[in-house]
């Protein structure tokens, strides 16, 4: 059934909500913003059941105004867990994530890029880490794929089988960096990474309680970049108890393959990196502590 | 022994430089002894490595300084080890004096003295270090002339890796490079800067090729920065000295197996530089049993004397109308006699002379990394507590 939702102030006009999924008492809401690249989205969706195991979950796909949208595709991949939110225009990654997260109420939220293919048991492993109450955000080990050329992507900047993400640390220039990128995924230093400055929004799990308190991703980051790091800094600033603040943790045992920038590269989406860095510094400079030395 | 928290600064170009080859085994060894080490790596781009210490990327010396200051505040470091040239060490000491005048950590400087005499200003600059290691006996003695309390740090060689080849290996490698078995092969490995004096080496090889004309073919293998915008143009040099058809030129940064292979397929090693602070390539050539032909100056003397190699006399400076000196520190520059060098190589080719190969290998065997590491470790042990650094 297709219904027209009431337009919230500040939201894009004519947001159509197609609610095919039924409400459930799930533990986890998986939010997947997507802009075209249905080839990779299909692979992503297919990897979720095995990754989650017996964890009850919902999936909310936020179609960000994809020009290549077809009902046929979504009808084909439809499962009882999936809710589709279709936007008429691309409102950027942060806003799309916020819309998706607002659709459900499960205690854990997992933001997942449509070009991430999850390994078996990876979601279950992340959920297990959230059993530690001081952990506010968890991320996973992401590696570059071996078949990038088949998806029309530049292989020279995506070293097959090597680390794409194992956490984010802060450089001496106050820039968030993907440390150990390009390293072998079995290197001891890679698998020793635990508590980090931030994790990528490509695969970011957090508590809904914290999400609400912070107010979700900052939509001032426009199309995207820095909203994930900014969120993590917000979580780190929150006190878990009198002695400590919340932790941002990466779990090397939870693994996925990330095609990295598949949408941006194919459709030339300009991410405002410089402006967003300035916004990030403006918001968080007082909270920033250089920490890359802990992982190198 | 209380493990120390150590920050190091050195060149971390993974295509390997002298400082890279010196610092990595040293820091790795200190790490194995229990010290906690962070290296502010100049030129480090995040490459994967297996050493047991952390390498933090640093674009320039100011970033290194920031890294040192940050780590001192966050971790209360005990020692700063800097393995770089004297002028850069002076710069770092001056920055420390300005930004961290009350530093609690000690400063260990490790550096070469390339040529004599040591500049008075440089001597005055380095005397502020808490411990001074100079990587050659020659350099140590020069420093001591200026009452600089330097100690000779005997740099080790991994003799399990740098070993002489078998005859089969040598012939097999020649075949791989397309070099006939009976060619006389001379190898030179040096950066493309004026001190290394490539024109003299090309001139020498030109004389060798002429002398052996009709008798034996000559191949000259050269490894350098071939495409560096500053320095000798190798193609131009080859044409100028008529050796273009005789040499194989390779870009520096070769992985170890390839580098070892070049030494292994050679008959002699030639390095007619104007001065040498230590010369790693000379030690590598000696480790593979090669006769080394080098200028009779600076650190080369202590390696090759007593017939462990061949020391080529230099042209006396009185023969020039102006004093020969290096504008970077005012030290002497030694210009090798290319005819003498050529004569030595020709005689080697004919088997008329040999060097003391056994003595050369024993000299190399006496330079073990475990001793180098212990030399530095002993100094660290003598500093039990985090004390006031030497501030002047």
Order of helices and strands of chain B: EHEEHEHEHEHEHEHEHEHEHEHEEEHHH
Question: What share of the residues of chain A does DSSP label as strand, in percent?
Answer: 15-25%
Q: Describe the biggest sheet of chain A?
A: 11 strands, mixed
Helix content of chain B: 25-40%
Number of helices of chain A: 9
Order of helices and strands of chain A, N to C? EEEHEHEHEEHEEEEHEHHEHH
Low-confidence stretches of chain B: none
SS content category of chain A: alpha/beta
Oligomer: heterodimer
Strand order of the largest sheet of chain B: 3-2-1-4-5-6-7
Task: List the topology elements.
The complex is a heterodimer of chains A (296) and B (392).
Chain A (H helix, E strand, L loop, with lengths): L1 E3 L11 E3 L9 E7 L3 H15 L4 E8 L6 H7 L4 E6 L5 H10 L5 E5 L3 E3 L3 H8 L5 E9 L19 E3 L3 E2 L5 E2 L10 H4 L11 E5 H7 L12 H10 L10 E12 L3 H6 L5 H12 L12
Parallel strand pairs in A: 3-4, 3-6, 4-5, 8-13
Antiparallel strand pairs in A: 1-2, 2-5, 6-12, 7-13, 8-9, 8-12, 10-11
Chain B lengths: L4 E7 L6 H15 L3 E7 L11 E5 L2 H15 L3 E5 L2 H14 L6 E6 L8 H7 L4 E4 L2 H9 L4 E3 L14 H11 L6 E6 L8 H14 L6 E7 L9 H7 L6 E5 L4 H10 L2 E4 L8 H8 L4 E4 L2 H7 L5 E3 L1 E2 L19 E2 L1 H13 L6 H9 L3 H14 L10
Parallel strand pairs in B: 1-2, 1-4, 2-3, 4-5, 5-6, 6-7, 8-9, 8-11, 9-10, 11-12, 12-13
Antiparallel strand pairs in B: 14-15
Helix pairs in contact in B: 1-14, 6-9, 7-12
Report on the structure:
- The complex is a heterodimer of chains A (296) and B (392).
- Chain A is an alpha/beta fold and 296 residues long.
- Chain A has helices at residues 38-52, 71-77, 93-102, 122-129, 188-191, 208-214, 227-236, 262-267, 273-284; strands spanning 2-4, 16-18, 28-34, 57-64, 82-87, 108-112, 116-118, 135-143, 163-165, 169-170, 176-177, 203-207, 247-258.
- In chain A, the strands form two sheets. In chain A, strands 1, 2, 3, 4, 5, 6, 7, 8, 9, 12 and 13 form an eleven-stranded mixed sheet that branches. In chain A, strands 10-11 form a two-stranded antiparallel sheet.
- The longest helix of chain A is centred in the N-terminal third of the chain and has 15 residues, at 38-52.
- By secondary structure, chain B is α/β, with parallel strands linked by helices.
- Chain B contains 14 helices and 15 strands.
- Chain B has helices at residues 18-32, 61-75, 86-99, 120-126, 137-145, 167-177, 198-211, 234-240, 256-265, 280-287, 298-304, 338-350, 357-365, 369-382, and strands spanning 5-11, 36-42, 54-58, 79-83, 106-111, 131-134, 150-152, 184-189, 218-224, 247-251, 268-271, 292-295, 310-312, 314-315, 335-336.
- In chain B, the strands form three sheets. In chain B, strands 3-2-1-4-5-6-7 form a seven-stranded parallel sheet, with helices on both faces. In chain B, strands 10-9-8-11-12-13 form a six-stranded parallel sheet, with helices on both faces. Chain B has a two-stranded antiparallel sheet with strand order 14-15.
- In chain B, β6 (131-134), α5 and β7 form a beta-alpha-beta unit.
- Chain B is globular, with a radius of gyration of 22 Å.
- The mean pLDDT of chain B is 92.
- Classes of the chains: A alpha/beta (296), B alpha/beta (392).
- Chains A and B meet through loops of A and β3 and α2 of B.
